[in-house]
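Support reply, case 0932

Customer input (verbatim):
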Amino acid sequence: MSDFDLVLSGTIVLPTTIIENGYVAVRDGKVTHVGEGTPPSARERHLLGNALILPGAIDAQTHSLSQKNQEDFIWSTRSAAAGGVTTIVDMPYDEGNLVASAEAVRIKVGHASPQARVDFALYGTVNPEEGAARILEQVEAGVAAFKFSTFGTDPIRFPRIPPALLEECFAAIAPTGLTAGVHNEDDEAVRAAMAKVKALGITDYRAHALSRPPLTELLASLQIYETGAATGCPAHVVHCSLGRGYDIAKSYRDQGFAATIECCIHYLVLDEEHDVARLGGKAKINPPIRPRAEVEKLWEHVRAGNVTLVSTDHVSWSENRKTNPDMLANASGVPGLEAMVPLFVKGALERNIPLTWAAKLMAENPARHFRLDHVKGALTAGKDADITVLFDRPKTYDAAASGNNVVGWSPYNGIELPWTVGLTYLRGQLAFDGTTVLSQPGTGRFVRPERRA
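Our regenerated output:
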């Protein structure tokens, strides 16, 4: 009788190497080992040819509850499983429950647990009226990081955190070792640019990027990293659309500071002159989608190792909130959980960028960033057997056709994907078979960061 519950053979994609004729062996929901050559026998054994076998992706930025009675974890985690994402890290800006206290964390865990089909971790934040008083209680409740914003989208649900309070929050977080992630748009600069756009009467697709020019993003990034340097808190820019932003982050790391930076998949795929012009409000995202030349700069930063994480910033707004002809009147954000991994693989292959970056930027680095690497993020012995398998089965992406999304629209609809997710395993159990999400609501677990001295 075999010692293994599951063995998968194919091309193993690890953060530092690719094993062409490799296999991964699983026992009791954990990776036992990764090897090369003839795969051992197992109770369940799949010889997958040239299929790409990667560690399950960790999406560092999802918004499951931004719109009441819309997506929820029942759908976000279904999209995740279908996209090879085995853990999501959900943002704290929920409509009706700003996650800014231990009680709010417990409410959200209790709400998500019976729905989740994949594992989940949580961000915490603060209510500006309370200051930093509830940060440590949220750490005890199990948040994996904190999220703030230098721009105020909504005074209650998505508030601006002014500089003095941001410094106070960073100082409170620093002793815990967790990361302070910040939405990087300077409030005063954005509002001035928005006023100028409105005064000019520009309402078409151009309005959004004009209302948030590059300097609005870069000024905020400098504030974030300087605040981290001043307080000793790990500082993280949660979405950077500009090559210059990655240069800035690298300069702080070169000086010895903990300065990380995240690239959302939409910044690596979509551009302003073609996609935003075509899609209008369905491509409205903060910060904005930039011109194609900027997209290619970001890919070069991927190649150079200057990107820490790749994520989705996933949010499934109902279509009526994304189709206003006045560009600035639309909600900001797009869904992406089902498409992130195959989109990244497509982009990397087209540019001869090693696929090792897929394993590093969407699994290993996120696990380390959120201190989940004691159980997540790698195909190494003792870690959860979270596995994503891609097959060279070209498919034109259609969010509605898959049936795994609460909305049928996507800015990625119509994109030809050369490699598509064919199998997703969560802790050694099949969560997605290439067509159907098999993982049932309640299968996913709340994952807490590892306590460290």
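We compared this against your earlier run and they match. Two observations from our side: The longest strand covers residues 44-55. The chain has a mean pLDDT of 97. Please reopen the case if you see a mismatch on your end.
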